[in-house]
Automatic annotation (TrEMBL), chains A, B:
<protein>
    <recommendedName>
        <fullName>Guanylate kinase</fullName>
        <ecNumber>2.7.4.8</ecNumber>
    </recommendedName>
</protein>
<dbReference type="InterPro" id="IPR008145">
    <property type="entry name" value="GK/Ca_channel_bsu"/>
</dbReference>
<comment type="similarity">
    <text>Belongs to the guanylate kinase family.</text>
</comment>
<dbReference type="InterPro" id="IPR008144">
    <property type="entry name" value="Guanylate_kin-like_dom"/>
</dbReference>
<keyword id="KW-0418">Kinase</keyword>
<dbReference type="Pfam" id="PF00625">
    <property type="entry name" value="Guanylate_kin"/>
</dbReference>
<dbReference type="GO" id="GO:0004385">
    <property type="term" value="F:GMP kinase activity"/>
</dbReference>
<dbReference type="InterPro" id="IPR027417">
    <property type="entry name" value="P-loop_NTPase"/>
</dbReference>
<keyword id="KW-0963">Cytoplasm</keyword>
<dbReference type="GO" id="GO:0005524">
    <property type="term" value="F:ATP binding"/>
</dbReference>
<comment type="function">
    <text>Essential for recycling GMP and indirectly, cGMP.</text>
</comment>
<feature type="domain" description="Guanylate kinase-like">
    <location>
        <begin position="10"/>
        <end position="188"/>
    </location>
</feature>
<feature type="binding site">
    <location>
        <begin position="17"/>
        <end position="24"/>
    </location>
    <ligand>
        <name>ATP</name>
    </ligand>
</feature>
<keyword id="KW-0547">Nucleotide-binding</keyword>
<dbReference type="InterPro" id="IPR020590">
    <property type="entry name" value="Guanylate_kinase_CS"/>
</dbReference>
<dbReference type="GO" id="GO:0005829">
    <property type="term" value="C:cytosol"/>
</dbReference>
<keyword id="KW-0808">Transferase</keyword>
């Protein structure tokens, strides 16, 4: 970084992948490799499960304060399910970016589109399964869901994959080590995207 | 790559940097690290210099055949100087991309804009000096040009840098090893750009 006098604003990454795609495993490796990466903690109105810690697993909030945040534009994205609300409080993400940290949001496609609209500099990354068939096989092998639930998950995955073309980058999780390298290269390159570096170009021109 | 049945089309990279920025050194290292990368050979109407080999350093062509290529849309980009013409014949680049090779064009900003217009999937990469002042210092240290020529080069560099915002990626050549890593990460990530992978997404959805 040549502009040593000022903090370069961090990059906001949005990461989505269908359920059963190995998102958790890939993110665990990515977390090990990047020290300046902050994982955003979502807010939710659901009750904490045993062992879940407020501020670590989720920010547990009331429906009233959740709605207040939505109403005042304080949510970067949110999803409302029948019983529970989930969302990303904007202020924490923005202050992390301001201080030069990169932030990663692990959210669904609908939320990703909301982030892109509100914060166009965000870099959207979608991880694909090798095929939908392979995804189904993985879900069956996992053995935690009934076939009916698996079919529902596969339909949901197909809906999500068809939105992948609205992301900036896509990669396939076929082999874990390759998937992690793909993700890290994307993150490195994304920081070098011209959208992120207009001030850098101005700075190079100025200092003469 | 999950779509093993078909050859994935290669990626076209356009690489520009002001004179004196260390472009040759960076490209030499990049060439070592990437086996499937083809360096495009330009066509020129100038006479070969001693030691230059036709088809290796340049394709040496007549003004008539150069003009014929331009007239028939056979040049991906070209530049006409007072005495000599330089250009990138389209057919060689396209057949390399078709066969799955990645191709890199080392050209000036004006040519880069022509490529982007004709082939929007191209990935445009601009390498910046740490500062214009530093660039001038490097040119002075090199000791091959008069101060008048150096001033001309610096003005030209500033004109080029001000066009860097039309590229896809920018990075600074401050330390060679970091610059090479930046370039390699950009090239890896660029292959994962969504523009390049619309067919991949379709393929994942289909095979189920």
């Amino acid at each position: 970084m040549s502009d040593k006098g000022s903090v370069q604003r961090g990059t906001l990454y949005v990461f989505s992948a269908p359920s059963g795609c190995g998102k958790g495993t890939v993110l665990k490796e990515v977390r090990k490799a990047s020290s300046r990466l902050v994982f955003s903690v979502s807010a939710t109105t659901r009750q904490p499960r045993p062992g879940e810690v407020d501020g670590v697993d989720y920010h547990f909030v009331t429906k009233e304060s959740f709605n207040e945040l939505v109403r005042t534009g304080g949510m970067l994205e949110y999803a409302i399910f029948v019983d529970n609300y989930y969302g990303t409080p904007k202020d924490r993400v923005m202050s992390a970016l301001d201080s030069g940290s990169d932030v990663i949001l692990e959210i669904e496609t609908a939320g990703a589109m909301m982030v892109k609209a509100l914060y166009p500099e965000a870099v959207l990354i979608f991880m694909l399964p090798p095929s939908v068939e392979e995804l189904k096989t993985r879900l069956i092998k996992r053995g935690t869901d009934s076939l009916e639930v698996i079919d529902k998950r596969v339909s949901q995955a197909m809906r999500e994959i068809s939105l992948a073309c609205n992301y900036d980058y896509v990669f396939v999780n076929d082999r874990l080590d390759e998937a992690v390298q793909d993700m890290l290269s994307i993150m490195k390159a994304a920081r070098l995207g011209v959208r992120q570096n207009k001030d850098l170009i101005k700075g190079v021109l100025k200092r003469c």
